[in-house]
Amino acid sequence: MNTEILISELNFKGIRSSGPGGQHVNKTASKVEVSFDLENSHALSETEKERLRNKLASKITSEGIIMLQCGETRSQHRNKSIVIERLLVLLQQNLKVAKPRKKTKPSKGAIERRLKSKKQNALKKSNRRPPKID
Questions:
Q1: pTM of the model
Q2: For the region Disordered, what residue ranges are annotated (predicted)?
């Protein structure tokens, strides 16, 4: 993933934001919406695109565009940097290849300790019962 090319491919849109700011939010477009065209990106290889399509299927539109918004602060510039950082983190986390899990078995000592503690608990609970009268 080439970050510089990816950032140059992003499309930004300013939207009127809700939240803190009072009258200010009614006049300015401080919320930022970023859209990233996954299908036509030159920053990602085909294998990376395929991995992202599979992992981010719920976040991708039918046209293959990933959209994120940020309206946390009153500043459009800060919102823009926050949303870029979020997008990069989202892509980096979903491009990681998970290591295959190695199957392991508990050691014989661990199995013996578990069975011994189970027997002790069973004995403790059986001692709590009233004696059987025949």
A1: 0.68
A2: 98-134
